[in-house]
Amino acid sequence: xxxxxxxxxxxxxxxxxxxxxxxxxxxxxxxxxxxxxxxxxxxxxxxxxxxxxxxxxxxxxxxxxxxxxxxxxxxxxxxxxxxxxxxxx
Length: 89
Hints:
Helix content: over 70%
Structural class: mainly alpha
Distance between the termini: 60 Å
Number of domains: 1
Shape: elongated
Oligomer: single chain
């Protein structure tokens, strides 16, 4: 058990932060899966509408520390590469 006052406070904060971070991570994953399924189905119009919200979810997860900066960049790059390949063909 924590002894110092700040450690006790941190113990109280951790479950709240975990719930928030899990929600942020789940939203990001859900949107990525939706985008990938639209890419597989070759639905360009729906994908173009969904991409900004996917990028926004990834950026917010990175900003709040749920994922790291390079992970966010990699995810955005890969989803963008798949989307641009779909629009070119």
